[in-house]
Amino acid sequence: MAFSTKSSQGAMADINVTPLVDVMLVLLIIFMVTMPIQSVPVDVDLPQKAQTPPDNQKEPPKPIELRIDSSGQVFWDNSPTPVSALQKMMEEEVARDPSNQPELQIDTNDQAEYGVLAKVLAAAKNADMAKIGFVQK
Length: 137
What we know:
Order of helices and strands: HEEEHEHE
Distance between the termini: 79 Å
CATH class of the domain at 64-135: Alpha Beta
Number of strands: 5
Structural class: alpha/beta
Shape: elongated
Radius of gyration: 36 Å
Helix content: 25-40%
Strand order of the largest sheet: 3-2-1-4-5
Number of helices: 3
Largest sheet: 5 strands, mixed
């Protein structure tokens, strides 16, 4: 502690660094003890490059263009289709090749009702379509 016996000199403005050094030494010892524990190597099995590429390089199927106009009419590849028939058509597309489904590209008009889009999305979900995208033309 910094005490002054003479009152004429005023308060002593020196910093007592002894507690700071004590804390730093304790932290240094803690880090020295814990560092060897943290340096244990971890084995990671990384994937290796295949010598031969996979044989079945399938070309992706042509995407399905589904358009909803401002009146709520649905067009499947530019042919008018009722909303009630969409799920069956989607199930047929999924059944052709479940692992290589075509992408369903939905284009909606700005004035189209959301209810029609909700029915289309519900039909796609019920038909287990995996690739659904929204396009704006």
